[in-house]
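Please decode residue identities from the backbone states below.
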């Protein structure tokens, strides 16, 4: 039989059972919602996957993206990025050659 017994198959499966759940209340709410849908008081329930439901959910989940969206501007413009790249190329050339002049040939 061994030290561990017959349980050598792997870890236990996760089994979470809710403690404070009123199944009767949930069932009544579902029935009430279905009746309202049938009477036209609520819109019809969507079935299936809709990619438009996902749009914007990632931005809503983070505060810094919400702030950026509220400001309405991008962090860097294309001109700033190009100037930084040119400056880095001149710095790289200075490190390699020791001169600030940039000779192509």
């Amino acid at each position: 039989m061994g030290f561990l017994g017959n349980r050598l198959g792997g870890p236990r499966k996760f089994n979470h059972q809710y403690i404070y759940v009123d199944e009767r209340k949930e069932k009544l709410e579902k029935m009430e919602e279905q009746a309202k849908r049938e009477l036209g008081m609520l819109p019809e329930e969507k079935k299936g996957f809709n990619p438009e439901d996902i749009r914007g959910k990632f931005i809503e989940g983070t505060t810094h993206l919400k702030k950026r969206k509220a400001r309405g501007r991008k962090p860097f413009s294309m001109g700033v990025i190009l100037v930084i790249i040119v400056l880095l190329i001149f710095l790289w050339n200075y490190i390699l050659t020791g001169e600030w002049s940039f000779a192509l040939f």
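Observation: DSSP finds five helices and no strands in the chain.
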